[in-house]
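Narrative of activities, Objective 1.

The group set out to show that a structural description can be obtained from nothing but a protein's sequence at a throughput compatible with the screening campaign. Below is one input-output pair from the validation batch, recorded exactly as produced.
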Amino acid sequence: MISFTEVIPIGQIIKLHGINGEMAFMSNYEGLDFDNIPFLIFDMHGILVPFYLKEWRFNSENSGFLKIEDVNNEKKAKNFLGLTIYLHKKFLNILESDVDMDNNTFIEFRIFDKDNNFIGIVTDIDTSTQNVLFIVDNGEKQILIPACQDYILQIDEMKKIIYMDLPEGLLEL
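Output recorded for this entry:
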């Protein structure tokens, strides 16, 4: 069984494309190359399930179309609509660039810990150092949280929520 600690979010299915099961996606990565990635992972009702990639093509640096094996009609493809696309961490070396934090993708996202406790809202992203930081406002103070993929459990782009497993004591700094 695949756990959330073994995967990273790389994008989201945004709409269906045609009636043969093709789906449009947006990616957090520019220039992502699926050539050496045999499967993508989706959260299907709380269980991470791998699906083999049948076809894919880009129409811009971070968006395109994909087909998954055995998803060959509109009805089956609808089950993926709005879902986050995950990549197993063993394929991390295939990614050509880190998450593009410069485009402020995560501004206004709410951050929750692994126990579903609210931490705060991302108000800015600090990319001035090698370690990218979420600048988070919790209503009382500003918190700096490393935007490290090791700490990110799940990103729900539709609800604008980031679930994180943070080291003990980090929020008290």
